[in-house]
Amino acid sequence: MKDRFISCIALGLLVLLCGLSYWYSVKAELENITHLSDLESPDFIARDITITKFDKDGKASARVFAKEVKHYSDGHADAVLPEYASLNPNEAQVTARSDTAKMVESGAVIHFYDNVDIRQAAKNGSPACRLTTSQLDAYPDDNIYSSDKPATLYRGEDTSNGVGFDYDNVDRTFKLRSRVQTTLQPNTVKNVQR
What we know:
Elements: H1 2-34, E1 44-54, E2 60-71, E3 77-80, E4 83-86, E5 94-97, E6 100-104, E7 109-120, E8 129-139, E9 144-155, E10 158-168, E11 173-183
Antiparallel strand pairs: 1-2, 2-3, 2-4, 3-6, 4-5, 5-7, 6-7, 7-8, 8-9, 9-10, 10-11
């Protein structure tokens, strides 16, 4: 009888222990649900960063630099003084910088804001180009950049102003959309003898 009593107490304690464990488990899960991450507060903040993107062969294809980046739980990030640089040796190098930027879709789209400055290096006889605007949408995977804002394009000695643009780094084409004014400089000035 004494053994049966001890067995019943041990079984009761075991059932109580299992019940308490289950209760604490449910309570912990419910507490986690009430503390979902706040989309207004960053998950982390990084300063003076460099992010390198690699292609499928493991070669660096682009770099993003920033003075400060705030990353949020939905995957987007806000950057201060960002700079993007393409690294593909088969294409003209492009850099894009601005005062602020927002990266979305894991960096597939980067929105640059305020004092945007894009530069394309000279390549294969084409002169260097520079584009300035107040806002830019960059699609690094496709090497495409666009904006609806006023922009100024410098191509060698020539200057064009317009509203809105599309830039394709693969095709090496700039397209100003509207209100375009262009100033072309002569390539050479020849002395004409009379």
